Amino acid sequence: MVVRDILPGIEAVGVIDWHRMAFDDLMDLSDGTTYNAYVVRGSEKTALIDTVEAGFDEEYVTNLIRAKIDSVDYIVANHAEQDHSGSLPLLLELFPMAVVVTTEKGKELLCSLLLIEEERIMVVEENDSLSLGDKTLVFYPMPWVHWPETMVTWVPEDRILFSCDLFGSHLATSDVFSDGSCRLHEAAKRYFAVIMQPFRGKIREYLDAVEALSPAIIAPGHGPAYRDPAEILSLYRDWSSEEGKNLVVIPFVSMHSSTKWMVDQLVDALIQRGIQVRPYDLGTASPGMIAMDLIDATTIVIGTPTVHFGPHPKAANIAYLTNILKPKARYMAVIGSFGWGGKTVQALGDMMPKLSAEMLEPVYVKGKPGEQELVAVISLADEIYKRHHDNHLV
Fold first, then answer.
1. Would you state the pLDDT for residue 71?
2. N or C: which end of the chain has fewer CB within 10 A?
3. Beta carbons within 8 Å of 389's beta carbon, 6+ residues apart
4. Under a CB-based contact definition with an 8 Å cutoff, are residues 283 and 314 in contact?
5. d(Cα 216, Cα 236) in Å, to the nearest integer?
6. pLDDT tens digits, 295-317
7. How many CA atoms lie within 13 A of 26 on its CB side?
8. How far separated are the first and last CA of the chain, in Å rounded?
9. Contacts of 308 by beta carbon, 8 Å cutoff, 6+ apart
């Protein structure tokens, strides 16, 4: 990745990972990602904003050489996770006079994760600032975006906010700024879905703080920067709200077609009632895509057969993921079939204690479903319609 100008005295020096296929072995990356890092040159001092994944040390250092960085006074660590801090140990060797700037919790994590020496770290708090001469760095801790130590860095003279994971997107692109495309918005939504969704209450608070700054540019730690911050701020307002949409998400797995038959009947019945529906076959579906729809879903229906005494492992996996993402859904249901016994419905409910959703009457049948079971599926569709109608969604 070449060095690109953001503003006079501010350059992007991070790297593009064109070929990364998964992040945290959880979110599939159809479009790779970037590890964004920045240089802020003042008239008196120079600061680096974040670093890159450790495996990209050579490319990152090459970019610093291309940018003619021969001395560094401060290295700002907005976030201690290794995709942003991985090159920090090498940077501290290359620039022995540089001081790491982070929060108190950031110091603890950097010392633990990367064995950074405590004496190399300066701890900052809310509204603390550092002068670089004609530019100033102002720090705003924003814990639980999405780790407890995170902060953002503001340069008031240029009205640019370095937001690290906040407003990021896993998208490998040669564009340093957003092009406003649907592709970028989808990447940003998938990023929010898996990383930010559980913390949307905090996100709403921080959106107020960011909007109060009135930034001209938002430069995140992944994906392109925004010259029109209203673009991403508006999307985050929608995604972080507690208002669901007229959407039912149905992740399902079926071994001998009984559960799939029930899902197909439910999908048709919901469509006939004017309800948007998205079934996901867990044999092939991407967890990231399901997580994206969970942002908007008012109702979640899990379809699964019983395996031995409980839900199919793939259904259990999506139940666990749903629980840790804590989506805003107001209603839940379980449909499926069993051969001879088990407690699948209870087990799935027990796996999702963090959801505040109301559990609707399950449709769980023994053996192959028939006309009687079809009536029960239609009744479930009617009940979902009533709930959505009562919430003014239909």
1. 95
2. C
3. none
4. yes
5. 17
6. 999 999 999 999 988 999 999 99
7. 14
8. 48
9. 342
Q: How many residues does the chain have?
A: 394
Q: What is the DSSP string of 150-215?
A: -EEEEETTTTEEEEETTT------S-SB----HHHHHHHHHHIIIIIGGGHHHHHHHHHHHHHH--
β-bridge pairing 363-366 and 331-338: parallel
What residues does 90 pair with on adjacent strands? Answer: none
Tell me which H or E stretch contains 60.
helix 57-66
Tell me the residue type at 253: V
Asked if residue 39 lies in contact with residue 48, where contact means CB atoms within 8 angstroms, the answer is: yes
Helix, strand, coil percent values for the chain (each to nearest 5): 35, 25, 40
Decide if 381 contacts 333 (C-beta within 8 A). no
**Are 209 and 223 in contact, with CB atoms under 8 Å apart?**
no
Question: Which H or E run includes 102?
Answer: strand 99-102
Amino acid at 227: R
Q: What is the pLDDT, as a whole number, of residue 25?
A: 66
- Return the amino acid letter for 330: R
> By the 8 A CB rule, do 189 and 25 touch?
no
State which residues of the chain have pLDDT below 50: none
The answer to whether residues 193 and 291 touch, using CB atoms and an 8 Å cutoff, is yes
Is the whole model's pTM more than 0.70, yes or no?
A: yes
Which residue's entry shows tokens 């700054």?
A: 213
Which pLDDT belongs to residue 198?
A: 96
Q: What are phi and psi of 113, to 5 degrees?
A: -80, -35
Strand partners, 297: 245
> Rounded to an integer, what distance in angstroms lies between the CA atom of residue 303 and that of residue 281?
9
For position 369, what pLDDT does the model report?
A: 86
Q: Cβ contacts of residue 260 below 8 Å, gap of 6+?
A: 252, 254, 303
- Output the pLDDT for position 26: 67
- DSSP state string for 298-314: EEEEEE--EETTEE-HH
Sort 375 into a burial class: Cβ within 10 Å, 0-12 / 13-18 / 19+: exposed
Residue 11 identity (one-letter amino acid) = E
Q: What mean pLDDT value characterizes the chain?
A: 94
